[in-house]
Amino acid sequence: MTASKRNLSFDIARAIAIYLVIIGHSMTGLWDTWQSNFIFAANLPIFFIISGYFYHSKRIKDVVQTGVNTLLIPFFIVTLLYITLRTALGEIVQHVHYLNFQTLIPLIYGNGATGQSPFGFELSSHAGAVWFLPTMFIANIIFHWLMKSNKEIIRFTFVIILFGLGYSLAQVVYFPWSLQAALEVQIYYLFGYWLAKLIKQYSQKTIFANPYILLISLICWILSATSGSYELNRGLADNMFIAVLGGFGSAIVLLGIAFFIEKHWHQIAKGLSYVGQYSLVLLCVHSLDIGLLDTEVMNFLESQAWFSDYSLFAYLGLMLLRILYTTCFTWTLLKIKFIYNLLVDRNFPLQKA
Question: Per residue in 237-290, pLDDT tens?
């Protein structure tokens, strides 16, 4: 799909969302505060909502093929690269042995946080931000299977059942590829699908530029942030009902901001739409960044007296720096044709039959 045929508002919203992911992971000293809850309430649900928005019927075989090319292969590449670099860093620089059974588990398990597996072993290492990729792979397949039914009530009923099942499983153990989260996010896919039908009936302006809709959505987002944490990778929240409302509301607000940028700030819109098209590649680069550099960067900063004295400005500077170098490095990587094909091309290496 060429840039001219793309919906710029949705690409811009993806860009804002991936930058919120980077910002959230840079708030190390502010975790479990309403500020970090505000960021984490919004940075991932919108990706599932947008996927639901652009749903169109496909063969499950094609969904799997595209998912392998654009989600699973990048996941395995990033995870293998991280393990390799982390092992080399440990052996050469830190003189510690990193490679063992526990550190290899995330390569297969795809967990984004520590936890208890249903197979009797502890998950003490995790895959970082790229946990999202295999989870979305499963979630895409589930949603396309659900949409095989032509009856809206059946779709809705199954989504509620799967959401309840995912939430129940998340209370007990952490499943491979965050299966519990993949079940829960079906509610976001369906919301996105309904949103597309609503906008087709009216218009983007009617929804995304409506001050009342945006205000209600912002209130839902704020309520989610103040009600506690939302760990989508685990499928857990302090108040799941309000967390999901916050996911809906934050997506509408981000799309409203994106719609405004597209209409009024054309140069910014052009740059952000590019970032949005390759947001999953940014996620991969960022995952390596936080896996390899985050601890060292934060240890250095927190050892500096000025960091605690000017912590707000220090965190803002860190976020901006991380956004800039992640974006620049991603842009550079995508100039290499083989890497572009490997991380972006929907028909490489698996070809549609």
Answer: 999 999 999 999 999 999 999 999 999 999 999 999 999 999 999 999 999 998
Distance, CA of 326 to CA of 275 (rounded, Å) = 11
Burial (Cβ within 10 Å: 0-12, 13-18, ≥19) of residue 24? buried
pLDDT over threshold 50, residue 135: yes
Please report how many Cα atoms fall inside a 13 Å half-sphere around the Cα of residue 134, on the Cβ side: 24
Greatest Cα pair distance in the chain: 62
- State both tokens at 201: 């009936």
What is the DSSP pairing of strand 115-116 with strand 122-123?
Answer: antiparallel
Q: Which residues of 112-140 are buried (b: 16+ CB within 10 A; e: fewer)?
A: beebeeeeeeebebbbbbbbbbbbbbbbb
147-154 mean pLDDT = 93
299: pLDDT strictly greater than 70: no
Rounded Cα distance between 322 and 91, Å, is 26
Does residue 55 carry a pLDDT above 90? yes
Q: What is the pTM of this model?
A: 0.93
- Per the listing, tokens 């720096």 go with 321
How far does CA 196 lie from the centroid of its chain?
20
CA distances from 336 to 84, 188, 343 (A): 22, 34, 11
Does the pLDDT of residue 131 top 80, yes or no?
Answer: yes
DSSP 6-50: S-HHHHHHHHHHHHHHHHHHT-GGGTTSHHHHHHHTTTTHHHHHH
DSSP letter, residue 70 = I
